[in-house]
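Chain X:
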Amino acid sequence: MTSGLLLVGAGGFAGAVLRFLVSGAIPKAGEIPAGTLAVNTIGSFALALITFSSVSDSLIYLLSIGVLGSFTTFSTFAYESFRLMEQGEAKYSLLNITLNLAMCMTGVMAAYLFTGH
């Protein structure tokens, strides 16, 4: 367990730095935050690539949970929604997508209102 925690922590540090560098290097495309879009797209691809491959638990801790967990959290959302569709659970996939979007936007709006903007 301790080695897993260290791998997640090291990966998390690396992922956070990578996100900072990548998203900061890509300017907005009009009003679209292209840096965030880029890291989410890259993260989704990388998580699926790792998950669909046979890799060791150590690599899962380091790369999937650590690096990609802090590089982006959208990758997990995209992967889980895809897996539901792949498993023939289209209604749950769509519900997952809808709930994620609705709850995240509601959370942003609540914080916006709470801070008096």
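Chain Y:
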Amino acid sequence: MNRISVPVRQLDPGLSLPHYAHAGDAGADLLSAEQFTLEPGERRLIGTGVALALPVGWVGLVHPRSGLAARHGVTVLNAPGTVDAGYRGELKVCLLNTDRDEAVHFERGDRIAQLILQRVDQAEFIPVEELDASDRGADGFGSTGR
């Protein structure tokens, strides 16, 4: 498994840095910097107490935790959230409680999301009069399920 060095500014020294629960995991756990309760249907932006300096050519993708989704219906609203290489502010996670009846309580330091780092390329967008043909063509949403 490849590793990259990522400078991390610990904005909240009482919290752990993002970390992998198991060797070989793709996602590093992000922790809540606050105690809060998400009411049914509520969304809330939660700080993680860390800021990163990702290298150019890399992106951080903030994904929901599968256990929170399965047990409580809590997800990351804009999943995956995008952390660009040039961003230096605190990582924040927009959580949503999709449960219609039950509130979900979080303690400071609870795992709320996971951060996946991925290499990215930038495209050069070139205007053309026509696009080359393909089997799918211009068929839109749902067109492959006929």
